[in-house]
Each structure stands twice: as structure tokens, then as C-alpha cells.
Design goal:
The protein is an alpha/beta fold and about 375 residues long. It has a single domain, classed as 3-Layer(bba) Sandwich (FAD/NAD(P)-binding domain), CATH 3.50.50. The strands form 3 sheets. The chain has an 8-stranded mixed β-sheet, sandwiched between helices. The chain has a 6-stranded mixed β-sheet with strand order 7-3-2-11-18-17, with helices on one face. The protein is elongated. The protein starts with a strand and ends with a helix.
Length: about 375
């Protein structure tokens, strides 16, 4: 059986694994990324790619990490010609309110020197996406990108710096008591003393390998890709996270659902209907659109909605970065930078909120599908 070595191994080729690979390679190390299928095969290749700043519906603990990550996104876009390489683009965004309580939430959390409050009549006068009555909303400059292209770009740049990529499933973790010694894949043994687990919803495999249970489950999300006549520019969302976005190529992304559906990744009629119904409260533009693609993916959701970015206790050399929910693309760069710092120095700033031993408060998904719906649409 073939045997190789790696400074550090990373399991999982989504945005979090790719970001960790990139920042470790920037430090001069030779990390190895292991991916079972292909880079950005899961949610990182199917997400909307919206880099929205902190929103009222999000947990306050995420605000600092998110702000840091959005700044890194901007820096990387300048370094790598993001506009042409992965469709990094700013656009005019609108978050709308549908109740007086939501008006207060948006004004308190999002209204600042870089945003503007628009009344309902002002929104309607623009003749953009919104053509139905609302309670007004916050207008601001937002950013979007192609998440699959961005993830692959990070990996490509990492390989130029000496990182390695191996496609194939990890079948076993090699340990000596409480210390990591390597990994076993179908093609051989990889000797390493440090492993970062960026396995998204498949984090549950750690219970088999390490005897610990990380409270992360798959949150299914469906997105429609549409062609719309006379497509309005920009995009909008509501506080619940329903959104519409026009991409640089003219395709409209409409989403999204949040369902506990196990590891099912089949798009459903029920999911499509819910997306269109939610968005029809605000716009008539979608009713004349043609659906050109309908995807479903699994986001890794922690029990309290916050990611885990930490060293796994009682096992020397084991680290984890997962549980980012719907914010994986936005939080990826800062997570990669932070976990690379933790692995190489033993400490990292601003990670106290994302420790494995933090108190957990359970949250609920936006649209919990019932068993009948899941069976009907499977």
C-alpha cells in the first residue's frame, strides 16, 4: 500500500476546506486537501454566493467574524481579479420589512452611514424587483460571487504555492492513543500529525473515528435559477432570508428553503412552490420566468446556528471548522485564516464564540418540512 506524508491534512473540499488550504499554503506549509468527489461538489457549488453583511435574523456572535471575512473577500478579489475570475461584483441590494417590528429591527441593526431607508412609495417608484406593498426597507451596496468558481480559485492558488489535492474518500483515521498519526484512503496511507475536519454535514463521521459527537446536521436548501423577461438589476431579500438576485450573466437566483430532510439532495415540487409563494408577496416579475435549473444542497447547521472553529479536545492534532449554515461562502475566508492560525500557533483571535465546549441553545429552521411533504416529493 502506498504511503505518503503531509504537513497538515484537510478533509473536505468545500469553501471552508479550500480557505484553510489557501491560508496554510500562504504560511509556507504544504497542506493536503482530501475530497471524496470534486471541489465544491456540495453546497459550495450550489449556493447563491451572496456576501450580505450582518442581518437582524443572525446571532450577534457572528458579527465580528463576518465583518473580517467580508474584508478578506474584498482583498482577495483585488488580488485575483475576482470580477473576471469568479464574478465578484457589487450590486444595489434591498432588505425589506413586512411589519412594524421588522422596520424597527432593520433600523436598529442595519441603518448606518453606508445604507439608506426607503419608504414603500420610494421603492415602488424605482420600478425594480419590488412592485407590491411593503413597510419600506434598507438599501445598501452588497457583493456577490460565483461560489463554485471562487472555491476552485482558492484551491488553484494553493496548489501554486505547494499545496496538494487528492480526490478520494478517507476510510479511516489513524491514531496512537490520544494523538493523530495519519489517514487511510482507498489509495494508501497518509502520515500526518495534524488533521482539520471541514466535512460540512458529514461531520457526524467523527463519532465513528474519534468517539465524539459534534452537534451538526444537514439543513437542506433549494434554489431556483430562472430567466426573466426584462430582468431588473440587483436583488432583494426579507428578514427571513428569502431572496432574489440577478447574476452578472443575467440568470436570476431565487431562494431558498430550510428543511430537515436528512441527506436527501433531490429538488422537490414542494420546495419550488414555497420559494415562489414566499417571493410573490413582494414581486410579480417571477411569474413570467422560466426555471432553467432547480438545485438542492445540504448546509452544515449547528444546534445554535454558530460554526465550530476549534481544536478537538483530548486528541492532539485534531481540529474542526464546520457548522456555518447558510453563511459558509461569506464566512469561509475568515474561518480559513483563523483555523490556520490556530493550527500553526496554538491560538487564534476571536474564536471564543465558536468553541466546541460553548453552551448550546437550539434554534429552528425557517421552513421545517414535515414528513408527509418529504415522502411526497422524494
Amino acid at each position: 500500500m502506498q504511503e505518503t506524508r503531509a504537513d497538515i491534512a484537510i478533509i473536505g473540499g468545500g469553501i471552508i476546506g479550500a480557505s484553510a488550504l489557501f491560508f496554510l499554503a500562504k504560511k509556507g506549509l504544504k497542506p493536503l486537501l482530501l475530497e471524496a468527489k470534486s471541489i465544491a461538489h456540495g453546497a459550495s457549488g450550489k449556493a447563491g454566493g451572496i456576501l450580505t453583511p450582518f442581518a437582524p435574523s443572525e446571532t450577534p456572535e457572528i458579527k465580528e467574524l463576518l465583518g473580517k471575512s467580508l474584508q478578506i473577500h474584498d482583498n482577495l478579489a483585488k488580488e485575483f481579479d475576482g470580477e473576471n475570475q469568479y464574478a465578484y461584483e457589487k450590486y444595489r441590494a434591498l432588505t425589506i420589512a413586512t411589519t412594524l417590528d421588522e422596520v424597527n429591527q432593520l433600523r436598529e441593526t442595519r441603518l448606518n452611514s453606508e445604507s439608506q431607508w426607503l419608504k414603500n412609495e420610494e421603492i415602488l417608484q424605482e420600478k425594480g424587483w419590488i412592485n407590491k406593498e411593503t413597510y419600506g426597507g434598507i438599501c445598501f451596496t452588497n457583493y456577490q460571487l460565483d461560489p463554485e468558481a471562487f472555491t476552485k480559485k482558492l484551491v488553484a492558488e494553493s496548489l501554486k504555492m505547494g499545496a496538494r489535492l487528492e480526490l478520494g474518500r478517507v476510510i479511516n483515521l489513524l491514531k496512537n492513543k490520544d494523538r493523530i498519526e495519519g489517514l487511510e484512503t482507498k489509495s494508501g496511507i497518509i502520515r500526518t500529525e495534524k488533521v482539520i475536519f471541514t466535512m460540512g454535514p458529514w461531520t457526524m463521521n467523527l463519532e465513528k473515528w474519534l468517539g465524539i459527537k459534534i452537534p451538526v446536521i444537514p439543513l437542506k436548501g433549494e434554489i431556483l435559477r430562472m430567466q426573466i423577461p426584462n430582468t431588473p438589476a440587483g436583488g432583494f431579500s426579507d428578514i427571513q432570508g428569502n431572496y432574489v438576485l440577478t447574476r452578472p450573466n443575467g440568470i436570476v437566483f431565487a431562494g431558498t428553503t430550510e428543511d430537515y430532510a436528512g441527506f436527501d439532495t433531490h429538488p422537490t415540487q414542494n420546495g419550488k412552490d414555497r420559494i415562489l409563494k414566499s417571493l410573490s408577496r413582494y414581486t410579480d416579475h417571477l411569474k413570467d420566468g422560466a426555471i432553467v435549473d432547480h438545485t438542492a444542497c445540504l448546509r452544515p447547521l449547528s444546534a445554535d446556528g454558530l460554526p465550530f472553529i476549534d481544536q478537538i479536545p483530548n486528541i492532539n492534532g485534531a481540529y474542526i471548522a464546520t457548522g456555518h449554515g447558510r453563511k459558509g461562502i461569506a464566512l469561509g475566508p475568515a474561518t480559513g485564516e483563523s483555523i490556520s492560525e490556530l493550527v500553526t500557533t496554538g491560538r487564534s483571535t476571536s474564536l471564543d464564540n465558536f468553541r466546541l465546549d460553548r453552551p448550546i441553545k437550539t434554534i429552528k429552521p425557517k421552513h421545517p418540512a414535515n414528513v408527509h411533504e418529504l415522502q411526497q416529493d422524494a
